[in-house]
Amino acid sequence: MAEVILKDLVKTYPGNDSRATDEVSLTVADGEFMVLLGPSGCGKTTLLRMVAGLELPDSGQIVIGDRDVTYAEPRRRNLSMVFQSYAVFPNKSVADNIGFGLRVRGVPAAEVRRKVAWAADLLQLTPYLDRYPAKLSGGQRQRVAVARAIVMDADVLLMDEPLSNLDALLRLSFRAELKKLVGELGTTTLYVTHDQVEALSLGDRVAVMRDGSIVQCDTPTSVYDEPADTFVGGFLGSPPMNFLTGKVERDSHGALTVDFGGQSLPLPTSLTSYEGRKLTLGIRPEAISVDGLGSADGEASVRGTLQVLEPLGSAVLLTTEVCGQTVKVQAPASFRTETGTELRLRLPASQCRWYDPETGLLLE
Ligand code: ATP
Predict the structure, then answer these.
(1) d(CA 44, ligand 1 centre) in Å
(2) 46 C-alpha to center of ligand 1: Å?
(3) Does 145 fall in a domain?
(4) Any atom of ligand 1 within 6 Å of the Cβ of 9
(5) Which residues constitute the domain of residue 332?
(6) Within this chain, do residues 249 and 230 fall inside the same structural domain, yes or no?
(7) What is the pLDDT of residues 107-140, one digit of tens each?
(8) Ligand 1 geometric centre to CA of 41 (Å)
(9) What pTM was estimated for this model as a whole?
């Protein structure tokens, strides 16, 4: 096992003006499960391929354990990779697929058999060891690809969207299996996905990427609860965080408030320097509670007009309009009311995040 340190990695592809990764630095602790998350084209795969040695950086440094491997050949890095396409060999049995890398390495046959049996047991593939991939389900094939990677005793496991070819149900069950397995193995893991649920569920930490840079790297709880900027808040969560922009003004009592265009919220005391300027409020749909008008008890609230009510089974999703801006609210499954109704939306101060509308950065 080993720590992975990435320092200022820059990569530009020929014919492409913008940097695929732009001075990316990241430290993955020994045994940590680090997820690289971000929209298509943000540079996740490029970063992973540089760690694997399949791409060389223009500048920067990659250290695995205590070795600088920036320009080392892939096979000298002691890592294993699982790709999205989980390319298993169709003409080899499951056992031969799993043991392939070990045999190439010249490991004695008895040891190969022992390790194949161990990995097959961990991944529940023992009954299929003599089968050929054509006679396996997608999930079983994917397990073969993972088994093939873990038998190698690598310092680092690299996975690029390994679940993306599985259907939704299989994905869900294999995600949990993978989490258990990697937890047991304790191998340092770098895992690429654009699926935020997968990232939050699997990662010890999640590095959220945008345009070749890491914009936030923290625990799943922190990136979800305290998005460092409006991009992260808008990328994580389904539906994502609500954003409402207003102007800081004094009300008739002389108190500073954020006015959204006829309705306002008290300004947090730490933001008084924003008097006269604009602020963006970020709040998660499930952090807002809703009731009829006239029952305010001092908690900050705004009025929202219900536009759409979508029953989702375990909850209902409300689309409301507050001063011309859309606010989504996740309400209890039993909540029903007519569209056009005016609702009181309670916004607990502890759940409100405030952002600079120009930079998009979290302010407190
Ligand atoms: P996805 O989730 O779609 O795989 P990603 O976040 O993994 O995206 P990368 O594949 O790393 O992103 O791509 C980063 C940027 O580099 C993109 O703008 C992409 O178009 C560009 N890029 C990637 N590979 C190449 C290549 N071989 N040649 C030229 N440009 C490339």
Answers:
(1) 8
(2) 6
(3) yes
(4) no
(5) 242-355
(6) no
(7) 999 999 999 999 898 888 999 999 999 999 888 8
(8) 5
(9) 0.91
